[in-house]
């Protein structure tokens, strides 16, 4: 009687499951890396298309309302011109506010730097009286000795300004077509696909656009509420540049979790230099209050329009996006993750519906239930 040969070693079920998920995660990670690498290669085009979609999400509902009484082309033109006039008006208001307070700001900042210096010289810091003056002298010496380098950087900065203006022009140009006939362009794209894939692509596209528009409307509303609260609070505290700082808060709110505290930290520095430590401490307290309102009221209430992501997922997305593509990646990361997750959920729900429909059809066939039971 020969001994039985040992079979292949059994693999624990949890290891099988972990391996199955591991290779799927690797594939998803490679796809995300390839996407960010492609966007990094053509980041101006990617940013322009993203901004075009943002403009479309904000202005298409307005254009649809305006187009009820006039031709759609004219309605789109009027809507875009109105939005552009609003943005330019806000920037003009900020410029006038800065120009009007220029003399007062220079005087207050000089006095504020003197107050900060005296504050640092007092207990508990005991900073040497000549330390700040020595630092100013070194900064002046550095600027004078590196003048040519700074001029070169300024020229390079002008090149970046041209790139930014080109990106904005492309975004505006793309938004014209997206607002006017985006649905027809999407329908044409679906017609180029194989027939079996059109249903899944249509379901994924609907979910993606619903999530993207919901996120865009939500984040704009959150940013506007934050900017209004910050602007009113800074005005009541007597902090100069309340309107520009409120606009900075509006722009920074598009980077979830970290944007708003950074903008308010800038406001705290301005308050410290112009009004002293007490007002700066009140601005720091404002950072905590705004963070609580944003995290526990505005985001749960407003972002329910889109996919609600766990704060940990949002934080990881922002950090990963900033590592991959800087500030642009930090802005794009959360809506991109939201859209990907919503498409996955929609396709999973559609597949589940097809499976249940197939089972019901088999059950409705004559003898289908008996054959299924016998099998």
How would you describe this structure to a colleague?
- With 375 residues, the chain is mostly helical.
- It folds into two domains: 148 residues, no CATH class; 161 residues.
- The chain is 85% helix and 0% strand.
- The chain is built from twelve helices and no strands.
- It starts with 12 loop residues before the first helix and ends with a helix.
Average predicted local confidence, pLDDT: 78
H/E series: HHHHHHHHHHHH
Overall spatial form = globular
Strand content: under 5%
Radius of gyration equals 28 Å
Structurally, the number of domains stands at: 2
Query: pLDDT below 50 for ≥5 consecutive residues: which ranges?
Result: 369-375
Strand tally is: 0
Helix percent reads over 70%
How many DSSP helices? 12
Determine the structural class based on helices, strands and strand pairing. mainly alpha
Separation, N- and C-terminal Cα atoms: 39 Å
Tell me about the largest β-sheet: none
Summarize the structure.
This protein has helices spanning 13-41, 43-66, 72-100, 102-121, 131-145, 147-191, 195-237, 242-252, 259-274, 277-302, 311-364, 368-374. By secondary structure, it is mainly alpha-helical.
């Amino acid at each position: 009687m020969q001994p039985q040969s040992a079979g292949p070693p059994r693999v624990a079920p949890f290891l099988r499951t972990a391996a199955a998920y591991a290779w799927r995660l690797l594939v998803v990670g490679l796809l995300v890396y390839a996407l960010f690498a492609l966007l990094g290669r053509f980041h101006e085009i990617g940013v322009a298309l993203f901004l075009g979609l943002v403009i479309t999400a904000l202005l298409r509902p307005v254009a649809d309302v305006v187009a009820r009484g006039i031709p759609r082309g004219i309605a789109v033109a009027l809507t875009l011109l109105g939005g552009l006039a609003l943005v330019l008006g806000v920037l003009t208001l900020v410029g006038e506010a800065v120009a009007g307070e220029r003399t007062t700001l220079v005087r207050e900042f000089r006095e504020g730097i003197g107050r900060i210096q005296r504050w640092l010289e007092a207990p508990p810091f005991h900073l040497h009286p000549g330390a700040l003056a020595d630092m100013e002298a070194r900064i002046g010496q550095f600027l004078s000795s590196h003048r040519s380098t700074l001029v070169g950087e300024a020229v390079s900065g002008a090149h970046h300004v041209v790139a930014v203006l080109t990106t904005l022009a492309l975004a505006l140009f793309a938004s014209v077509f997206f607002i006017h006939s985006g649905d027809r362009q999407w329908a044409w794209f679906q017609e180029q696909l194989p027939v079996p894939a059109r249903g899944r692509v249509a379901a994924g596209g609907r979910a993606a656009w619903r999530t993207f528009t919901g996120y865009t409307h939500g984040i704009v509303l959150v940013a506007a509420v934050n900017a209004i609260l910050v602007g009113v609070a800074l005005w009541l505290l007597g902090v100069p540049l309340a309107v520009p700082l409120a606009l900075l808060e509006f722009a920074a709110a598009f980077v979830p979790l970290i944007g708003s505290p950074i903008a308010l930290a800038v406001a705290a520095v301005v308050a410290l230099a112009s009004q002293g430590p007490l007002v700066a401490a009140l601005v720091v307290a404002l950072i905590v209050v705004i963070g609580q309102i944003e995290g526990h009221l505005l985001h749960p209430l407003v972002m329910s329009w889109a996919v609600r992501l766990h704060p940990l997922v949002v934080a990881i997305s922002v950090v990963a996006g900033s590592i991959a593509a800087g500030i642009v990646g930090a802005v794009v990361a959360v809506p991109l993750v939201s859209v990907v997750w919503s498409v996955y959920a929609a396709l999973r729900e559609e597949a589940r519906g097809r499976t249940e429909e197939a089972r019901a059809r088999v059950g409705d066939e004559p003898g289908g239930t008996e054959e299924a039971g016998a099998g």
